[in-house]
Amino acid sequence: MNFDWQQLTRLQFWLDLKEQLADIGPLLPFLLAFLESFFPVLPLFVIVLFNVTVYGNLIGFLTSATGNILGSIAVFLLFRIYVRPSVEKYAEKHPRISRSLIWVAKQRPSVIFYLSALPFTPSFLLNTFFGCSRFSKRLYMTAITGGKLIMIAMMSFFGYSVMEISENPVFIVISVMGLLLVYILSKWANKTSGIDEL
After folding, report:
1. How far apart are CA 175 and CA 165, in angstroms?
2. Which residues contact 33 (CB under 8 A, 6 or more apart)?
3. What does the alpha-carbon distance between residue 19 and residue 10 come to, in Å, rounded to a whole number?
4. Burial class of residue 62, CB neighbours in 10 A (0-12, 13-18, 19+)
5. Among candidates 154, 131, 144, 163, which has minimal Cα distance to 55?
């Protein structure tokens, strides 16, 4: 039986999932945000919206942020420990990979912070590329934590806005304008940093 991937973008899918996994309790919002780091096909925005809608603003934000931050760090460490040695050997014979690793090594922590704070940045690429590089583990984990906190906070606000739309239509305008601004900033940051060329 074929799986309809489009249903992942529908809030009702996640509400139905909550009913099916009711025994997990408060671990569910954490696990969903954690798994998104490993499976980029999962829509983080919808997951955060689900968490905020079902578990409230504070719990939804905390579980989403904690899960996604720890998931990102886990992916980074897995690639650092198990994949980097092979990638470095492969890069010796492939100039493009070598150039990408050099680009990563030259980045400042602020670049990671800004990129990870923008929802439309390919987070999985950040985790894997920096994991395969010799970039400082401590600096990466610090920068990704700060950036993810801001990103999840923005998503949580949008989730709150969606819930308020029925009572105050002005939140529709705020949400649309906010998402458009974040999208433009994300595209600009990706182009400026060079991550789109990796």
Report:
1. 9
2. 44, 47, 48, 51, 63, 64, 65, 66, 67, 68, 71
3. 15
4. middle
5. 163
Sign of CA dihedral 155, 157, 163, 169: negative
Q: At residue 25, what is the residue type?
A: G
At how many degrees (to 10) do helices 170-193 and 109-117 cross? 150
Cβ neighbours of residue 31 closer than 8 Å, sequence gap 6 or more? 24, 67
Per-domain boundaries in the chain: 25-197
Cα distances (Å, whole numbers) of residue 173 to 33, 79, 81, 170, 176: 27, 41, 45, 5, 5
Please give the model's pTM, rounded to 2 decimal places: 0.79
What is the tens place of the pLDDT at every residue in 7-52? 766 767 777 777 776 667 778 889 999 999 999 888 898 889 888 8
